Amino acid sequence: MRANHLELEADMKIAKASEMQQLDRIAIDQYGIPGIVLMENAGRGTVSAMAETFGPLVDSTVVIFVGPGNNGGDGLVIARHALAAGAHPLVIFTISPEKLQGDAAVNAAVVEKLRIPFLSLSDPFETSDIHQAVTSAHARYPVSCIVDALFGTGLTREVTGHMGRVVETINELRSSYHLPVVAVDLPSGINTDTGLPLGQSVSADLTVTYGLPKPAHYLHGGRGIGELHIVDITIPQAAYSEIPLRGRVITAEEIATSLPARAADSHKGTHGHLLVLAGSEGKTGAAILCCRAALTSGCGLVTSVVPQNLNPVMETSLIEAMTLPLPDAATSTLSIDDIDYILAAAIGKKAIVLGPGIGTDEQTEELVLLLYKEISLPMVVDADALTLLALHRDVLVRPGGPRILTPHPGEMARLSGLATEEIQADRVQATLALCSGCEREQRIVTVLKGAGTVIADNQGNWAINTSGNQGMATGGMGDVLAGLIGSLLAQGMGAWDAACAGVYMHGLAADLIANEKEYGYTASEVAAGLPAAIQKCRNL
Asked: What is the rounded distance in angstroms from the CA atom of residue 501 to the CA atom of residue 85?
């Protein structure tokens, strides 16, 4: 289930596990905020989010699984505030309470003095003991939710053995009793930085995270996250400038501030002219979709360079775009032989899209390499052009101008030399790594497409998209994205802003369609839906 992301600010930073730990340490050591205060704010904020999501907790049972560290301490604070809200908490300690340390131990002592019922699990434990405790509590006061306070953002090892069985039990309770699960900071067993499970992992319906969102909340579609709430635990704003937080979440609010303004007296020449180098025999659809997205996203003029024998198809399908048929009537692909015509066509243009459906012929390969190295115009490089560039990684790091690369994981694997599984295992790091070796003189941005699209550049900046849905898993979506980003470049946006805005609005257009039908819509429909997505952002 894709996460429903809430309460995101216009410039919402995102923190990896190590960065969040640094922020906690800065708040405690430099600003003198005791860790137990941060824990208190986290627990109180979680109970508030639970009540907001599920309704008042009064006269309900809240089952809280408490782990061995500070995440467990958060769970104990949750128990106390649930009690204050009129609920009847049942605490299940996964280790003996006497083994808790620090702030967690302090809160365990408070829970004991409040006489909050608890069950302490032995190792091994009987699952039936937990079911019996929950059933007995439910008989007195209906269970409203289960709280997963086992592990926080620092988990790096696989969840197996005793704790693995606890995770399994939480998932069983969720399924058997149809109870929502609330994850404290992150569903236990999910790697904070990659979003992938570490052995067993909890499936949550609500995740309440602290301070800043984490990569796992968005990567791979926010696997197991459910609805996301972000709670301010009063880490001072000044602390966030103490460390270089280079990642951020792409939101509608951010995009609204970056879209180019359109003056009342503007005309088609005001909003850029995009040159599209796309399509070949059997793949004219890629060029058509690319151009259509450019037109529906506000580009003033679009010219498509096409082999002469394909020109009738393009002119019939793209009545608002211009076409430039190449002189050689015998070929059905773009080739190095066309270089003079293409260079002439680039004069006066503001940006180029290179690659959708152009094929991988040897002469096309020569053309792609030359254009990538020599053209100074901003360029979106997609699809077949990426496949060809992957054969020449030395060229990849020496572009002639700003470049936006838009690979899917398979193309990314070819570009980086890694296996697709390695790419997916750490999407953020893989995207950053591809850009890191590129020359700094030119801005190179990589857009790693997929659930939780990652954008990174050769300056070390990275972002994760929050729009889009499963219905986009169909042919032609990448062609629409390439045309959209190219359009934004032509309208004057920089490479980074164009990539982020393009990815977000592409997903948003699909989300608006998904409100009517979950899947079965096409890339053409997404292209047609771009004006509504743009308007939604502008109206914020």
From this structure: 42
Give the number of other CB atoms < 10 A from CB of residue 95.
Answer: 18
* Predicted confidence (pLDDT) per residue in 211-261, tens digit: 999 999 999 998 899 999 999 999 999 999 899 999 999 988 888 888 888
With CA atoms as reference, report the closest residue to 529 among 519, 518, 511, 540. 511
Contact 444, 379 (CB under 8 A): no
- My answer on whether 34 and 157 are in the same domain is yes
- Give yes or no for residue 334 having a pLDDT over 70: yes
Task: Tell whether 282 and 178 lie within a shared domain.
Answer: no
Where residue 379 sits, what CATH number does that domain have? 3.40.1190.20
Query: How do 462-465 and 454-457 pair as beta strands?
Result: antiparallel
Is this prediction's pTM over 0.85?
A: yes
Number of structural domains (the chain) is 2
Q: Which domain holds residue 301?
A: 268-403+475-538
Residue 41 has φ and ψ, to the nearest 5°, of: -65, -35
Give yes or no: residues 169 and 277 share one domain: no
Stronger pLDDT, 6 or 383, i.e. the higher one: 383
Q: Where are the alpha helices (DSSP H) in 468-529?
A: 477-490, 495-514, 523-528
